[in-house]
């Protein structure tokens, strides 16, 4: 390569490396704040600040949704299926995709009693798209993971949904 | 013709102009065929999603637009290196003529994402990793557009834009991995190079047709713009005068 071009190439590589390193350091320093929400283990573990506006996320625990008969109040439990969960109270209309086992994001404040007072509920969906005809098949072998962000990869349980919440936690703890 | 020869000739505006007429038509015809097929297939015939119903079909616009938004920027970065190091004439033309298409694709990805986000997430917009880094990409395109117009000398403007394009490429892996590095509301990647997509072929096949069609549209657009720009840039050259007197006479 021509020496002049070589030196220009080195300059470009140098500038690019420097800029990439700067961005990497900035992202590293800001890493905590770049996360959009606190997962259940951080909320339950006391890492999430109390009384400040934050976002938290998790999967809606099966059988935990309680609706008030005379208002839009609703309460449910968000879990990571790894033993950590927290309760959420919300008053308002839930998104269409809200259902048990669905990944959900809540914005609001964590109370001192450990109950998250949500002002906004958002549904998180995953990249597993499927025609409705295939639903019975998927249910039959339980092979469809829901949003699996809260589940450690490699740990898949075949019949988690049949278990009660307590034994579900135990099952996950035993690595299924 | 060896690759080396082809590469050197690609750097010559005259050779490129004389060769690229058929390329432009081929890419344009392919783009129309693929996009019409893919859109009709995806929007009318593909099955709805079990959870999202028909609103999932926005994927057939959103994913090609988002992939192109990033690919165009990578192409700009590559052209930037070619211009900075090898001073290739064609690289400057690519830098000048690709920004608009990339900006439109980014805007389309952001807009279709917002339209999709409202019914599924419950919000038009959220500042999570993926959406914010894509917004930064749009601003990078705006920056390239503004920078070129802010510097009157064409060569200096080209080098400044090349540097911004090269440095801005750092944003591309950030967009790509944002859904893995941080907790985001945005779902994971639809297409991964390493594994099969997590949906049946009746859903991903039309999407693939649309993505390939969008790349053809990108190529057709680029070749057409380059041909116009070459004529303008080389208007003093003998071959353009000959062309204007003969084939190009109005």
Keywords for this entry:
heterodimer; A: 176 residues; 3 domains; five-stranded mixed barrel; elongated; B: 250 residues; mainly alpha; 9 helices
Describe the structure.
The complex is a heterodimer of chains A (176) and B (250). Chain A has helices spanning 3-29, 31-34, 40-44, 135-141, 165-173, and strands at residues 53-60, 66-67, 73-79, 85-91, 103-110, 115-124. Chain A is an alpha+beta fold. Chain A has 3 domains: 3-33; 36-124, Nucleic acid-binding proteins (OB fold (Dihydrolipoamide Acetyltransferase, E2P), Beta Barrel), CATH 2.40.50.140; 132-173, no CATH class. Chain A has a 5-stranded mixed barrel with strand order 1-3-4-6-5. The longest helix of chain A has 27 residues, at 3-29. The radius of gyration of chain A is 22 Å and the shape is elongated. Mean pLDDT of chain A is 77; it is low at 143-176. Chain B has one domain (24-48, 56-187, 195-244). Chain B is 76% helix and 0% strand. Chain B contains 9 helices and no strands. The longest helix of chain B is centred in the N-terminal third of the chain and has 33 residues, at 13-45. The model of chain B has no long low-confidence stretch (mean pLDDT 91). The chains are: A alpha+beta (176), B mainly alpha (250). The A-B interface holds A 5, 8-9, 11-12, 15-16, 19-20, 23, 27, 31, 34-37, 39, 57, 95-97, 105, 120-135, 147, 149 and B 47-52, 56, 59, 81, 84-86, 119-123, 126-129, 163, 166-167, 169-170, 174, 181-185, 187-190, 197-200, 202-203.
């Amino acid at each position: 390569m021509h020496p002049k071009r070589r030196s220009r190439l080195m300059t470009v590589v140098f500038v690019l490396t420097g800029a990439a390193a700067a961005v990497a350091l900035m992202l590293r320093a800001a890493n905590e704040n770049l996360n959009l929400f606190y997962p259940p283990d951080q909320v339950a573990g006391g890492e999430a600040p109390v009384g400040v506006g934050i976002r938290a996320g998790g999967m809606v625990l099966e059988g935990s949704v309680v609706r008030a008969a005379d208002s839009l109040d609703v309460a449910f439990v968000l879990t990571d299926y790894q033993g950590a969960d927290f309760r959420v109270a919300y008053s308002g209309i839930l998104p269409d995709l809200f259902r048990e086992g669905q990944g959900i994001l809540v914005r609001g404040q964590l109370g001192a009693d450990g109950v998250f007072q949500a002002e906004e509920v958002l549904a998180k969906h995953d990249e597993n798209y499927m025609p409705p005809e295939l639903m019975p098949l998927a249910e039959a072998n339980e092979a469809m993971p829901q949003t699996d962000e809260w589940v450690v990869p490699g740990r898949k349980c075949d019949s988690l949904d049949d278990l009660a919440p307590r034994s579900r936690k135990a099952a996950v703890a035993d690595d299924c | 013709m060896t690759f080396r020869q082809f590469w050197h000739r690609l750097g010559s505006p005259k050779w490129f102009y004389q060769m690229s007429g058929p390329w432009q038509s081929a890419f344009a015809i392919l783009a129309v065929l693929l996009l019409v097929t893919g859109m009709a297939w995806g929007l009318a015939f593909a099955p709805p999603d079990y959870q999202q119903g028909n609103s999932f079909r926005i994927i057939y616009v959103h994913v090609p637009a988002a992939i192109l938004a990033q690919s165009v920027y990578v192409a700009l970065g590559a052209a930037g290196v070619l211009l900075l190091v090898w001073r290739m004439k064609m690289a400057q033309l690519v830098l000048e003529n690709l920004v608009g298409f990339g900006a439109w694709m980014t805007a389309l990805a952001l807009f279709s994402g917002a339209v999709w986000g409202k019914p599924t997430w419950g919000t038009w917009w959220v500042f999570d990793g993926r959406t914010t880094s894509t917004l930064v990409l749009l601003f990078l395109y705006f920056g390239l557009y503004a920078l070129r117009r802010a510097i009157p000398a064409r060569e200096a403007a080209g080098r400044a834009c090349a540097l911004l394009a090269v440095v801005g490429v750092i944003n591309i892996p950030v967009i790509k991995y944002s859904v893995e590095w941080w907790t985001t509301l945005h779902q994971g990647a639809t297409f991964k190079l390493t594994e099969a997509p997590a949906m049946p072929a009746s859903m991903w096949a039309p999407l693939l047709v649309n993505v390939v069609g969008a790349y053809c549209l990108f190529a057709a657009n680029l070749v057409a713009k380059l041909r116009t720009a070459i004529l303008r840039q080389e208007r003093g050259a003998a071959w353009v005068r000959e062309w204007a007197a003969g084939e190009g006479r109005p």
